[in-house]
Amino acid sequence: MMMTGACSDSGAGPAARRLQVRLQRIDYAAEAINILDLAATDAGGLPPFEAGAHIDLHLPPDMVRQYSLCGDPADGSRYRIAVLRQDDGRGGSRSVHALRCGDMLEISAPRNGFPLDMRAGHHLLVAGGIGITPMIPMLHVLERQGADYSLYYCARGAGKMAFRDEIDRLARRGTAHLFFDGAAFRVVLADLLQPGAQPAGTHLYHCGPAALMAAVAQRTAVWPPGTVHAEFFAAPAGDRPAEGAAADGFEVVLARSGTRIAVPPGVSIADALRQAGIATATSCEQGICGECVVGYSAGEPDHRDFILSDGERRTQVALCCARSHSPSLTIDL
């Protein structure tokens, strides 16, 4: 997830409220990819969401997985997620593919760490594989707004390309570029991202496998701050700050009560809070979802997340992964 805007429903403290939903429909999207429609179980309906948002899906026995919402934000009747079955994964996708229509599930309210910036003069969307999911709501919004955009999407063959029909139906002529050849895609991407290749005011949104994310990050390192937005499947390997003094123990101060809690080496702030009896909501535990982001008012965090922008890091911190350069860190709890 992300190095982008603030989440719309993040925070620690009491555990985040869960929503009850019913699995209303399952559709085949592409090879090993199913689309699930989730409907409200009561007349209250589902909270609205913005393009780029994701939800936590709670799976038995005790798994939580994050999935981007891939429906039209204007459709308040359902949430849609698309899940790629990964037989060599951690088990979440296999559990999702074993679900059946009518099953009752628990989810979080939507959070958005990958929002569209409608101030952009041009929106460049780059997706690889299942990374297309957060782009589909963006297409709906950009088309309705009549915004200037282009989509570049690569999959490993036509049978693996999810949402192709929807993209063809939605996108204006010349705005969507689909690739089944990874080598050709990389060449085009290199041209797209070279300095001066995009109109002034362009914002880039990218999501996909680790190799794609690393290549895009490398080529956009000189782009203006705040114009590159990324949604990660997992924390990028090797991108954490080097261990050192910041890995030492420190303490957090709870601003509302003045309580001081020690955070030993090797223990996250979130875990230290829980050990002290303070309920703390987390989800990904990798700094990519935003569930545990809170404000801070004193101290110097060692930010190790992949969701907060440079501006947000001046006032916010992710409790699941941050350390502290200062002996104490005062957080807004």
UniProtKB/TrEMBL annotation:
Domain 2Fe-2S ferredoxin-type: 250-333
Entries under InterPro entries matching the protein: 2Fe-2S_ferredoxin-like_sf, 2Fe-2S_ferredoxin-type, Beta-grasp_dom_sf, FAD-bd_FR_type, FNR_nucleotide-bd, MRET, OxRdtase_FAD/NAD-bd, Riboflavin_synthase-like_b-brl
Residue intervals of the FAD-binding FR-type domain: 16-117
Species lineage: Bacteria, Pseudomonadati, Pseudomonadota, Alphaproteobacteria, Rhodospirillales
Domain of life: Bacteria
Any matching Pfam family: Fer2
Keyword set includes Iron-sulfur: yes
Organism encoding this protein: Ferrovibrio xuzhouensis
PROSITE patterns recorded: 2FE2S_FER_2, FAD_FR
Name listed for the protein in its UniProt record: PDR/VanB family oxidoreductase
